[in-house]
Design brief:
The complex is a heterodimer of chains A (243) and B (234). With 243 residues, chain A is mainly alpha-helical. Chain A has helices at 3-23, 38-70, 75-89, 93-107, 113-138, 142-151, 155-185, 197-208, 211-240. Chain B has 234 residues and is of the alpha/beta class. The chains are: A mainly alpha (243), B alpha/beta (234). Chain A binds chain B through residues 143-144, 146-147, 149-153, 157, 161-162, 165-166, 169, 242-243, and chain B through 50, 71-72, 74, 76, 78, 80, 82-86, 95-96, 99-100, 130, 148.
Chain lengths: 243, 234
């Protein structure tokens, strides 16, 4: 069976499954419940995208800072990174958001739960970003450093022309995976009443009782963001990947 | 090439080179031969200026090999091709020329293409290293070494990661460079290549120079160590 046909059949199979499930519900699938809530849901959708981008940018920066600390000659910095990483690896994201918004924030007289929640996700994702940097930089082989030494490239030239162009290509696919994690994780911001997609949809379903429709549409909306993202990542890997 | 090695010793955790002394003149292609761990690769790296010896001196053509001016004039071909994987074969060469030798882009491209042609790679110039064979990549790295127009080219087991067919392909392109006016110092385990290409052979064992002379010493070894070595590689 050729590749396209296999994918087409797989996709149809899942659509068929979704239709079957929808038809098996006790109440008919009724999209009219969305009337009057479109703006709310679109607003939620856009806020999910926006917040995800903010967290992505924030964690790309904080992940790099943490990476630099993990490579520092100062032993304390390396220990700090290890301890922080262990704590975060053991913490559920939901706990992180709640603790940040209701415990840590107030201790610093900060009560802006939304900012604190966003900060919570950013901190949560930071060690994962650090890992990406670690593997990307370590993939520049010693052989290449030897060649750089031999020809006498300056430190600036090494980074500008040899290291960074390669690191970016290696970084992109896992970075996009993390972005997908952030988008899905941002749904947890509903616990602090931030009206992102999940929260907006919950408001709609609690008023109209259209739970099935709400969750299915929400699911589709999340997939609408994450599938193109992972497809773009694959395309990027094929087009510019090094291996 | 005029070579003067004086009391050269080198230690990593153990002693790798032990009080080497040798003076040579008018040699075009020096082959370093010996078993793995005999110190030949270390000697090659010290001669090229890539590594700093623990003690002693190496003077080549009047330059101390630790001199910056000397190091800029050295071509080195590694065991693995060491090309930058994100750049085409052509760009691997032009990057070196434009950034570290300050050659203009157009001239750099000319030089690069010319050298790729010498190694029969002109039709592969725009391919990435991952899209050419191991032998072609190694030849490209020889072209890169040639492009900076060095007086001497050092080759550190350039075929050790290649299969016999690719080994032959790479070694015969090196032999074609015999009349390029460059001098060569090389380490290899391919004895037929040493016999064909070297005009002087240095046999090393346990960090010492044991026997030296023209390539004929490989056929009529005097020392016991070289006799043993040759009986094993034959």
């Amino acid at each position: 069976m050729n590749k396209r046909l296999s994918y087409l059949i797989s996709i149809l199979l899942f659509i068929g499954f979704a239709v079957f499930i929808a038809l098996r519900q006790r109440q008919p699938f009724n999209l009219s419940a969305f009337e009057g809530y479109r703006t709310l849901i679109m607003g939620g959708f856009l806020r999910t995208v926006m917040v995800s981008f903010i967290i992505l940018i924030g964690s790309v920066i904080s992940g790099f800072v943490l990476y630099l600390l993990s490579k520092s000659k100062v032993r304390f910095f390396r220990a700090f990174v290890d301890v922080l990483t262990e704590i975060i690896y053991g913490t559920p994201l939901l706990v992180m958001i709640v603790v940040m918004a209701f415990v840590i924030g107030p201790a610093f007289n900060s009560y802006n739960r939304i900012v604190l929640g966003i900060l919570g996700i950013t901190i949560y994702i930071t060690p994962y970003m650090t890992n990406i940097y670690k593997s990307a930089f370590s993939s520049i082989s010693d052989d290449q450093y030897q060649a750089m030494d031999l020809f006498g490239f300056t430190p600036y030239q090494r980074y500008r022309y040899i290291i960074i162009p390669q690191v970016i290509r290696i970084l992109m696919p896992p970075l996009m995976n993390n972005f997908s994690l952030i988008i899905k994780g941002s749904a947890l911001l509903h616990v602090i009443s931030y009206s992102e997609l999940f929260h907006s949809m919950s408001v709609m379903t609690s008023r109209t009782f259209a739970h099935v429709e709400g969750y299915i549409i929400m699911w589709m909306l999340y997939i609408m963001i994450t599938v193109p993202l992972s497809q773009f990542t694959r395309f990027f890997e094929r087009r510019w990947g090094l291996q | 090439m005029k070579l003067d090695i004086q009391n050269l010793s080198h230690t990593y955790d153990i002693e790798v080179l032990n009080e080497l002394n040798i003076q040579l003149e008018n040699k075009k292609a020096i082959g370093l031969v010996g078993v793995s761990g005999s110190g030949k690769s270390t000697l090659l790296r010290i001669m090229s200026g890539l590594e700093k010896p623990t003690s002693g001196k190496v003077i080549i053509n009047g330059f101390d090999v630790q001199d910056k001016a000397y190091r800029k004039n050295v071509g080195f071909v590694f065991q693995h091709h060491n090309l930058f994987p994100h750049l085409s074969l052509l760009d691997n060469i032009t990057l070196v020329l434009t950034k570290t030798r300050h050659v203009e882009k157009e001239k750099a491209t000319d030089i690069a293409l010319n050298n790729l042609r010498k190694l029969s790679l002109e039709d592969q110039a725009h391919k990435l290293p991952k899209h050419v064979s191991g032998g072609q990549a190694q030849r490209a790295s020889i072209a890169r070494a040639l492009s900076i127009n060095p007086d001497i080219i050092f080759l550190d087991e350039p075929t050790s990661s290649l299969d016999p067919i690719l080994t032959h392909e790479v070694l015969s392109s090196i032999e074609n460079l015999r009349d390029s006016g460059k001098d060569f110092v090389f380490v290899t385990h391919v004895m037929s290549f040493v016999k064909d290409f070297a005009d002087f052979v240095i046999f090393m064992d346990q960090g010492k120079i044991v026997e030296t002379g023209g390539p004929e010493i490989l056929d009529t070894p005097k020392s016991e160590a070289l006799q043993l070595f040759m009986s094993k590689v034959r």
